[in-house]
Amino acid sequence: MASLLQPVQGMSDIAAPEVAHWQRMEAVARDVMERHGFTELRTPLMEYEDLFTRSIGDTTDVVQKEMYSFERSHHRLCLRPEGTAGVMRHAAGLGPIEAAGARWYYIGPMFRCERPQAGRKRQFHQCGVECMEEPSPLVDAEILALQVDLLRAWGVTDCEVHLNTRGAGTEHAAVAAGLRAALAAREGDLCEDCRRRIHENVLRVLDCKNEACRAIVSSLPPVTAFMGPESVAYLEAVEAHLRAMSIPYRRDPLLVRGLDYYEHTIWEIAGRRAGSQSALAGGGRYRITLANRAWPGVGFAIGMERVLQLLLESPDASALLPPRRPLLWLVGLGNAAQSANLVLLRTLRAAGLVCRMAPSGSMKSQMRAANKAGAAWTLLRGDDELASGTILLKNMTTGDQRPVPADDALPTLLLSETAPAPARP
Ligand code: HAM
User: The whole model's pTM is what?
Assistant: First the structure.
């Protein structure tokens, strides 16, 4: 039986000090996305299972193998494996007029029952956007650029954009037929999964990791060979916009993406140092049918665990965090001092200081608690200090201490005295 002291396999608690990186990433993401005209949308973690089987596609790995699905009150439900479908459900609920042009972002947990390993979790976090626009190379390039800019704002500079196209939705059957015909003579040399994929979802043969399959697909014509000139021109227009914005990218004719809702532009961003799970982010243009209407959009999602792993491996990871206000600990000897400290605590916190106190204990045990919590400063008083209207300010690093007036000027004095050192340039 699994230990009750551990989170569910493939899921993690996120605690200090690492949580500070999450908070920074979230704050930076909100700032960047709001500057691009996106507002936050928080959809439920649970949806009807059908929403995903219909939009992601029932022959994809996500739907066939990875969803946490169950039945409750006669409904098939599941934990969301990704964010796009829920956002589109929201859009469809608003209706076409209100949803047109909408720009939403989300930050939150997703759930996929995959085999856990470094960089692959069963609960992981995505930061994504969805932009409700009809096909437009300009908008696709804008959204891809936003994703690159957000990664840069987080501190990820060493990554590579892989770009490809799925062609217009109306061409998907022709592309599949063309690939099937091109693979027909080599079918017997493909792995067992790919022999099944040829008939179920032939595009997936292109991203099979098996050596023999890779050798076969590398000799196939690119998917664009099975598309009409408009789809090729669409991709070229996206590329021209990316070049104009100086966004480096690489055309990757074997990139397919693992979700069926895509059409036209698709991309993935790989970290150059992220090891086996190098896909930091993926995105593209899509069309999802809900309530008998096809909803067009373009968006992306970034795997936050993978980005964080990459950032934490860099030698100056701690320099990414803004300096924190130091912790100030109030020590009170006797009931009267403790009670006065509780009042002072609120005043100091309201002034912007970070402070705590122990509920009881000798001076020694209160100082021990201050040390354990990492307090940089302590403020100490007993009956004598209460009577004289002073309080003892101690620097826990140097051990220096001196009495200071416990009056209305105390918060201002402490704010300047305990300010953190400025960040390294
Ligand atoms: P996705 O490629 O399935 O796309 O996931 C996006 C990113 O989520 C991946 O590149 C990866 O960084 C992260 N990710 C996926 N699975 C895991 C996992 N098990 N553990 C850790 N990280 C993971 C989507 O989800 C699409 N909804 C993206 C999109 C939005 N396309 C258009 N709009």
Answer: 0.93
